[in-house]
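Notes from the pairing session

We agreed to fold both candidates in a single pass and log them together. This is the raw record for the first candidate, unedited. Please don't reformat it; downstream parsing expects exactly this layout.

Candidate A
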Amino acid sequence: MSIIRSLLRFLSIAIAGLGYIAAFCMGLYGLFFSFDIVKIVLGPVAAFLSLIVFPVLLAVAPWYLGLSVGNWSLLFITYGAMPVFWICLGISTALYELGSED
């Protein structure tokens, strides 16, 4: 029985790590492509200045791409990082609780 508990604890840590990595990578992907969109539309100076106002860069650029071009993938990746993270964290918590029961 202790092998199953150890396996469940290991799986919970692995799934939590996977959630952190996935959310981090999706966030970086969204940041770099949002920066690229601002650079193409407004130029490199405005793109550099948009890094100072970081939330505006991530909030407006995916919506602009979706509404003007019809490509909604950046919006789904940028705003979809947190649900992926929370689902992985919820599964990880459930597995950890199963592994720590007496």
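Candidate B (folded immediately after A)
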Amino acid sequence: MHVRRLVGRRAMDGPTDPIAPRPRPPLRRRIEGLAWLTRPAIVLDSAFYALCGWFLSSPRATWHLAATLGSVWMARAGGIVMNDVLDYEDDKRTAPQMPLPAGLVSVRAAAALALALMLSAGGLGLAAATTAGGMVGITATYVACFVLAVLYSRFKGSGFPGSLLMSIQVSFPGVVGWVAGGARDAGQFAIVFGALTLFGVRQNLLAGLRDIDTDPLIGLRTTAARLGMERAVAWVLRLTALTSAALLLVAALRGNLAGVGLSVAGAALALASIPGMTRTFRDDELRTRESRSRSLRVLARRSYVTAAAFPVTALPVAGLLAWVLHWTVDAFLSRAYHARVTAGGLTGTGPGQLDATPKVHGVA
């Protein structure tokens, strides 16, 4: 009798199942979650690369340029969201504060967003082309980018091959911009595309070095961890110097003194950093996490010189203005993303806030 009363009382009090779904988040938070899934700061880089490609091919800004920037922005955003959908199960363990694993956004909604962005990117890309050949070129570029994205999801833990696949697809917006701008100076653009790819691998290694200390769960699976800190930072500096050398060649061919100056400065900073950075990241107990973090911040600031050389090499004044605008907006979006997503401000599941109660998720 006593057991019956206890069961009856629990039934009246309501379900106590710890995996019961939570109330649906407010619409405003769901929309914000979808927006952050596109990684606005990363996507901004795609528009920037497309601008560099356009400047190499055409000095004039027309409505085709606006269509090109919108197209590559949507294509990159759609690819990033789709990657989150494919990595949903892994992210529940490695990045529970993200909108998808935190249950803020459903997988179905995220997949629909990715599809809409990709279709819109294709339409704008065709509108950006000024010739039939341009339409074919832009279509082929997007198809190749999609294939590389699928391959990357399979090989992203393979070390350098994964980094290279990621970097090539990140550099593809430059191809779209160049084709839409008229596809002139193919040799110079090939060199710049190679430089963009090298710089992308360098950025991937730099992010891996940072993650080793700040996010060991992810960092220990990166290319930087496979190489070891000392070798990884040496490769970062070598790739920076190689990128600068490629840009120096293009700037010299174009008679662009501003591009020459920035390229030389970028290479000099990279080479001058090798001895000190190698000592800092040597695997011994004398080096602290704080000293490594400090060195990475210095290295990131110095890389601004090389990054600015891309648009300035193509078109000096307009390129410099584009870089300043890009850097300003990127800094704002990066800080906002860290506060709202990485630190768990949006989902309430950042470091120290993780809720052990399992959630019932949809698809994001």
